[in-house]
Design brief:
The complex is a heterodimer of chains A (460) and B (113).
Chain A (H helix, E strand, L loop, with lengths): L7 E7 L8 H7 L5 E4 L6 H11 L9 H15 L2 E4 L6 H14 L7 E6 L7 H6 L20 E6 L4 H8 L4 E4 L6 H11 L6 H14 L27 E4 L5 E4 L10 H8 L9 E2 L4 E3 L4 E6 L2 E5 L2 E3 L4 E21 L3 H18 L6 E7 L6 H7 L7 E10 L2 H8 L5 H4 L4 E2 L9 E12 L6 E6 L1
Parallel strand pairs in A: 1-2, 2-3, 3-6, 4-6
Antiparallel strand pairs in A: 1-7, 4-19, 5-14, 7-8, 8-12, 9-10, 10-13, 11-12, 14-16, 14-17, 14-18, 15-16
Helix pairs in contact in A: 1-3, 3-4, 6-7, 7-8
Chain B lengths: L7 E5 L4 E8 L2 E8 L5 H7 L2 H7 L8 E6 L4 E6 L20 H5 L3 E5 L1
Antiparallel strand pairs in B: 1-6, 2-3, 3-5, 4-5
The chains are: A alpha+beta (460), B alpha+beta (113).
Chain lengths: 460, 113
């Protein structure tokens, strides 16, 4: 048996679908790394991908992933860097197929193995699950899924690190998954490298914290950081984070030399509390991590050590992410200029609402914001800012309805205001807003035993 | 912070803390982090869940929960009903609650001296 390495370096290459296209290439060329972790899936991404797959059965994965792989595969093959990515969306096999074709085109046939993790997709099994008494109640509202069953467009269980570990043990160089947790993509290489056991809860929690720290990419290395933000160096050239971990569960967050950004206790702390619920119970399929046990220390410039992480046994449930058709919405904007910009925008809002009422249109919600005055901080901003001298204000008004026709009619009521409403108005260059279909998010829990992850490893 | 012995002074949280916020469904979370460890007890004492609920009156429709992370000198607030339904449903500019962070930093606390 080969001796286990003393450290492993896992680089974050994408923090969400749409993240910086340069990051993965920079991460595999900027210095030594063992793994590249790429997170693509947010809460509603699966339903977007399901929609794409329903139009074309060969799609349904993060298409950006393929050109990314085309660019870096020769490098990762040469340097033996492994990749974990949940880019597979609702079609991991299709995604793996596209990666394999790309690899063969780059003459890497016979040099790479691709692992595919599936089993998270429950869409075809929903009626069976409901019939067997799994109610899939909404975690926020408590309502049973039967309320919206006929409108469901996607349903995926969050799988954890273990199926990814199985793929790595099977020799996969690139692991493409469906809905594997963001943290699992980082935890899996740690389990695989160090041989962590399934009941080593503190270690699994440490790896989970490592994953949470880098899952949003540069948001822990100087991006979106409030402390001393003007002096964070060279964000144009920001270095994405790298976890450098030891077998005992202590790890450091760092980045490649010569890159911009900053790895500081302040920035790492901001990321640790990001999207946090109860910090003592960060629940994943792999463990429960206790964020109140984390210790942080700046050990060198751009290097923060994370230690002391405690964990508890995983629960017997998996979270399920369900997307269902909700209705339609549209948002229209107009910009009013000084003088009286704010008053004019307010007047335009009143006129528009009166016209919508006169047309007999009703909406589930009509929301008005005045960008430049109160769109982000609401009444807190209005109370502390002199609003009568604002140089400009953007009127931003949105509507939501189950009926497409009402939303459609609303979109035609914006432009007329330019000529038949309050003066000094501009900013309609983008044209009429388009009604947008809303696919809403339905989080639920499901017994772990009902979900069987499937792992395949194939040669390219 | 300007000091004057024996007096109390109103200080906005932006001088004592930094913050990051995000979303889970229709709930926004705000992690509030002391700029210096010695400010953390001030946050614990003054920035209660009730105080934060008053601060965000008119902006959130549900209750506020508070959790403590003394190890990180941080408090975590859950603001329920903050995002007009959240995610794709929301009509808000800040549908994902990204800037509730600095909105909380507007809150003023009374500190000694």
């Amino acid at each position: 048996m080969k001796p286990r390495p003393a450290t492993v370096r896992i680089a974050a290459g994408q923090g969400f679908w749409g993240d910086w296209l340069e990051a993965p290439h920079r991460q595999v060329t900027g210095g030594p790394v063992d793994y590249l972790m790429m997170d693509y899936l947010a809460e509603v991404t699966m339903s977007i991908l399901q929609k794409q797959k329903s139009r074309d059965p060969s799609l349904g994965y993060a298409k950006d992933f393929i050109p990314q792989m085309e660019r870096i595969l020769p490098i990762v093959a040469e340097r033996r860097i492994k990749i974990t990515a949940n880019a597979g969306g609702v079609n991991p096999r299709g995604c793996a197929q596209a990666v394999a074709e790309t690899a063969r085109r780059l003459r890497l046939g016979g040099k790479l193995r691709i692992g595919v993790v599936t089993g998270d997709d429950l869409l075809g099994r929903l009626d069976g699950l409901l019939a067997r008494g799994h109610e899939l109640r909404n975690l926020d509202t408590g309502r049973p899924l039967s309320d919206v069953r006929d409108r469901v467009v996607s349903a995926n269980a969050y799988l954890g690190a273990w199926p990814v570990v199985e793929a790595l043990r099977g020799g996969a160089d690139i692991v493409v998954t469906g809905r594997v947790t963001d943290t699992g993509l980082t935890l899996a290489p740690l389990i695989h490298t160090f041989g962590w056991r399934p009941d080593a809860w503190d270690l699994l929690a440490a790896g989970t914290v490592a994953g949470h720290t880098i899952e949003c990419g540069a948001q822990c290395s100087g991006g979106n950081c409030q402390v001393d933000w003007e002096r964070i160096p060279d964000l144009a050239n920001v270095g994405y984070p790298i976890v450098e971990a030891a077998p005992g569960g202590t790890f450091e967050i760092t980045k490649h030399p010569g890159t911009g950004g900053r790895i500081s206790v302040a920035g790492v702390t901001e990321q640790l509390v990001y999207e946090m619920g109860n910090p003592a119970e960060y629940i994943t399929p792999d463990c429960i991590a206790d964020f109140t046990s984390i210790r942080l220390e700046q050990t060198a410039k751009d290097r923060v050590q994370v230690s002391g992480v405690r964990g508890r046994p995983a629960t017997d449930k998996l979270k399920v992410s369900i997307g269902y058709f909700y209705g339609y919405k549209a948002v229209g904007t107009l910009v009013y200029a000084w003088p009286d910009a704010y008053k004019k925008a307010q007047a335009a809002d009143r006129i528009l609402r009166e016209r919508l009422a006169d047309l007999g249109l009703t909406f589930e919600s009509v929301l008005t914001e005045f960008v430049g005055a109160d769109a982000t901080h609401g009444p807190l901003a209005r109370a502390s800012t002199p609003l009568d001298q604002l140089p400009e204000v953007q009127l931003r008004i949105g509507v939501r309805s189950p009926e497409k026709a009402a939303v459609e009619r609303f979109t035609r009521e914006i432009a007329p205001l330019i000529l038949n409403g309050p003066p000094s108005v501009t900013g309609f260059a983008g044209g009429r807003p388009k009604p947008e279909e809303i696919v809403a998010y339905w989080p639920a829990l499901l017994d772990k035993r009902t979900v069987e992850p499937c792992v395949e490893v194939v040669d390219v | 912070m300007k000091k004057r012995a024996g007096r109390r002074k109103k200080v906005p949280l932006v001088e004592l803390a930094h913050a990051r916020s995000g979303d889970k469904g229709d709930t926004a979370n705000v992690g509030l982090i002391a700029l210096k460890p010695e400010y953390y007890p001030i946050l614990v004492k003054h920035v209660t869940a009730a105080r934060v609920a008053r601060h965000f009156k008119g902006m959130i429709s549900g209750p506020v929960e508070r959790y403590e992370l003394p190890n990180l000198h941080a408090l975590n607030f859950l603001l329920h009903g903050a995002l007009d339904g959240g995610g794709t449903i929301s009509l808000k500019t800040d549908a994902q609650g990204k800037v509730f962070s600095t909105a909380l930093l507007r809150l003023e606390v009374e500190v000694a001296r």
